[in-house]
Amino acid sequence: MSDALQELTEFEKHADAAVVELPVLRQPVRSLLSAIYLAADSRYVGERFKRKRGLIDDEAGTAIITRMSHVINLLERGTRQIGANIDDALSALDVSMKVDIENLFGYGHFCEVMPLVRRGAFSVESTASGFRLHHPNRQFATLEENDVLLSELALPHDVRLPPHPIEAYKRMAKALPIVPGDDLVHVLQAAYHHYLNNVLELPLISAEAFTESFGFSRHDFIHQRAALMAYADYCLGIADAAEFFAASAVTSPRRQKYTQEVLEWISPLLKRNHMIGFNAALAGVDPDVAEQIVDTFTLDLDNLAHTGGGEGFFPPFLKLDDALLFSPHAVKRMMPERNLLYALLRTNRAKFDEVVSHHLEPALLADAVQCLSAIPGVEIKQNAKWERGEIDLLAYHEASNSALHVQAKAAVPPQGARMVAQIESRTLEGAKQIRRFLNLSGKERDAIASAAIGRKLDRVEWSSAILVRTCLGTEKAWIGISGYIPLNPVLLRVALNKLVEQGDFSFVKLDGAVAEELDALRSTAIKGWSNKSFSLFGKTIDLPLLDLNYAAIAAFRNRALA
Predict the structure, then answer these.
(1) Residue 235 contacts by C-beta under 8 Å, 6 or more apart in sequence?
(2) Average model confidence (pLDDT) across the chain
(3) Least confident of 48-52, 489-493, 505-509, 552-556
(4) CA 333, 338, 344, 346 torsion-angle sign
(5) Beta strand pairing status for 485-487 and 317-320?
(6) Which stretches does DSSP call E strand in 314-460?
(7) 217 phi and psi, to 5 degrees?
(8) Burial 351-369 (b: 16+ CB within 10 A, else e)
(9) Which of 111, 154, 8 is CA-nearest to residue 553?
(10) DSSP bridge partners of 79
(11) How far apart are the C-alpha atoms of 90 and 84, rounded to whole Å?
(12) pLDDT at position 414, please?
């Protein structure tokens, strides 16, 4: 271990001990989380009342919220007072606690970085102000870029922007606390149908396994989630309208009134029964089912041991007495199906292993089968057994006498470095399975293909691929599959579409098509690495962070999934 790494490791121990003692953690939890939600909002929409000077950065806003997942267990140290209103709640935080909150943000980032340091993803250098982290070499950075892109491709996303009827929001904000019913119904219905029809998310397990795992159907989950996301848009719309009235107010009382409304709607505290019942009615979901869905995404300070959050997943709702505190931005971003699986993995490992884990790979293979079977002349056999192993998916194209050998390694999409390590291990396992098959003679491989397809095949040309749900892992995984094709469902779709459009289809050409599509995505989506820094307990930690063009990634996904 280098001296710098040893020094960083000692600092990690100091940070772990210091974060527990932060005075802000002993303040009302509503006060702390409201301050955090307001900080995240300023990155999502720009600084309120100073929009021209505000920096809009969705990823930074999400990072503020997700990094709180690393300190979930510390929230139980706070008190449960809710205050008379948002101003009262925020008044509990004095100026000195701004530094505490910055240390919480820094500690969350540190928790993401240190597992990567221990796995060799960064070399460490001591500086006068703290530490500087570097990638070990350029190859590592390039392969990291590829893995990040694969992860981004697999995320759920909106095909188009949701509606934002600002004039209706202004009418509702002006009428507060009584909301015009016609405007409310129109706004929520439009947003609800938007989220039902425009959120693209590939299912991770079958519909039957979903119901067995969670006790409610995917249909109910998607509809209830759409209603909650619509309600989140409503909250942000009222905040936007109140901001407009505050900025244009002539009198100080009016300005103060609407400024407070802005804050109230950025970090709402609403009756739990209202949130569940109202949105259940909007979604057409049984209230008991709606309650179960909301509870899955709720932090309960009295039962944090059974909260599913952690390592990148911060549940959007916090239960305080008979109310729910939430960030509307978090509601829109923290409720993909992957987080349901992640919550179950953390809270009921036995059920996850018994039910979910057995369905992840079949669902991934079913997705691949759907893509491949749409190509004329392609025959498919799953779980083709041979003496020393099993081919998860064998696709044969008679016209080109070519075959695709796929080893699928499905897992819950990773939330942190620990889960990335598990995915890497599964990827390398798949590479070993492919090597065992390719070490056979051509005649032996033909015999296996013949038995799988059900007729005599001769001199088949092979391509081999590792199919994952999201990404492969780190540099070690990418090097380990060198010579094989890296695939996830989105990359498979776009590459197959390319081959079909070009004509003269052959699986031998799949490797080239994947490489071309990945290179094309890299050329538009990778902006490069920027040296960024964060502060933690008096130290400054510099490290490279990847800048991405998220619009280019969304366009690529849309093209693949159209």
Answers:
(1) 265, 266, 268, 328
(2) 93
(3) 48-52
(4) negative
(5) unpaired
(6) 317-320, 323-326, 378-386, 389-397, 402-409
(7) -85, 160
(8) ebeebbbebbbbbbbebbb
(9) 154
(10) 28
(11) 11
(12) 63
Around 59, how many Cα atoms within 13 Å sit in the side-chain half-sphere?
8
DSSP, residue by residue, 125-165: EE-SSEEEEE-S-HHHHHHHHHHHHHHHHTS-EESSPPP--
Q: How far is CA 218 from the centre of its chain?
A: 18
Residue 287, both tokens = 């209230």
Structure tokens at 200: 């693209």
Q: At what angle do helices 272-283 and 218-248 cross, to 10 degrees?
A: 120
Q: What whole-number distance in Å separates Cα of residue 559 and Cα of residue 490?
A: 9
**To 5 degrees, how large is the angle CA 92–CA 251–CA 238?**
60
- Rounded to 5 degrees, what are φ and ψ at 162? -75, 160
> With 80 as the cut, is the pLDDT of residue 555 above it?
yes
Cis peptide bond upstream of 414, omega within 30: no
Number of other residues whose CB lies within 10 A of the CB of residue 13: 9
Q: Which amino acid, 211?
A: T
* Confidence tier at 310 by pLDDT (50, 70, 90): confident
Q: How far apart are CA 541 and CA 116, in angstroms?
A: 14
Backbone angles phi, psi at 341, to 5 degrees: -65, -40
Q: What's the CA gap between 548 and 522, in Å, rounded? A: 9
Q: Per-residue DSSP letters for 279-346?
A: HHHHHT--HHHHHHHHHHTEEETT-GGG---BTTB--SEEEETTEEEE-HHHHHHS-SHHHHHHHHHH
pLDDT above 80 (res 370): yes
Q: What is the DSSP string of 101-117?
A: HHHHHHHHHHHHHHHHH
- Whether the pLDDT of residue 417 is over 70: the answer is no
Longest CA–CA separation in the chain, Å: 87
Contacts of 16 (CB under 8 A, 6+ apart): none
DSSP state of 354: I
Sign of the torsion angle spanned by Cα atoms 182, 188, 194, 196 = negative
The string of pLDDT tens digits covering residues 474-498 is: 889 999 999 999 999 999 999 999 9
Q: Which tokens in the block code for residue 346?
A: 């953390």
CA distance 426 to 409: 6
Beta strand pairing status for 461-468 and 402-409?
parallel
Residues 280-296: tens digit of each pLDDT: 999 999 999 999 999 99
Sorted by sequence, the CB contacts under 8 Å of residue 386 that are 6+ apart come out as: 437, 448, 451
- For the chain, list the domains and their CATH numbers: 3-119+156-347 (no CATH), 359-531 (3.40.91)
Q: Among 270, 321, 314, 276, which residue's Cα sits nearest to residue 295? A: 276
- Angstrom distance (rounded) from CA 44 to CA 36: 13
